[in-house]
Amino acid sequence: PHEDVEFESGKWNVRQSEAPKIDATLALLTEKLRRYGGLVRLQLFVVGYTDTVGSKVSNRELSEKRARSIAAYFRRSGIRLPIYYQGFGEDVLAVKTPDETDEAKNRRAVYILAGSPPESQASIPRAAWKRL
């Protein structure tokens, strides 16, 4: 569980005002790594999404940049396990909207700590993970 980082429309950088949300997740990750890191080889998967403003192609690229931005934040903050990222653009909306709708809740990221890559599901329709 985590509080969603809010991205500005068309942007992928983590704003300073959003850093405390990632830092709270970082504390959870650190605790889980301490507890379970010796039992299983853990990996972190970061998934990015967008709203429907812009083309599908540009939104997929934007969502991947968002996922990579958060993955890099975790790395800079000391997470030393393998980190993978992937973006799904507007393919998986949190809030269904028509095209060209600026909906902040759709500009989000999901973090998954697991021993193996997550299986395909509604929020992760395909697997094309990139390693950070």
Q: If you had to describe this structure to a student in words, what would you say it looks like?
A:
With 132 residues, this protein is α+β, with helices and mostly antiparallel strands. It is 30% helix and 14% strand. It has two helices and four strands, in the order αβαβββ. A four-stranded mixed beta sheet has the order 3-1-2-4. Helix 2 links the parallel strand 1 (43-48) and strand 2. The mean pLDDT is 94.
Shape: globular
Structural class: alpha+beta
What's the rounded overall pLDDT mean?
94
State the helical fraction. 25-40%
Report the portion of residues in β strands.
Answer: 5-15%
Number of helices: 2
Key words describing this protein structure:
132 residues, alpha+beta, four-stranded mixed sheet, 2 helices, globular
Summarize the structure.
The chain has 2 helices and 4 strands, in the order αβαβββ. It has 132 residues and is of the alpha+beta class.
What's the layout of helices and strands?
Blueprint: H1 19-36, E1 43-48, H2 56-76, E2 83-87, E3 109-114, E4 130-131
Parallel strand pairs: 1-2
Antiparallel strand pairs: 1-3, 2-4
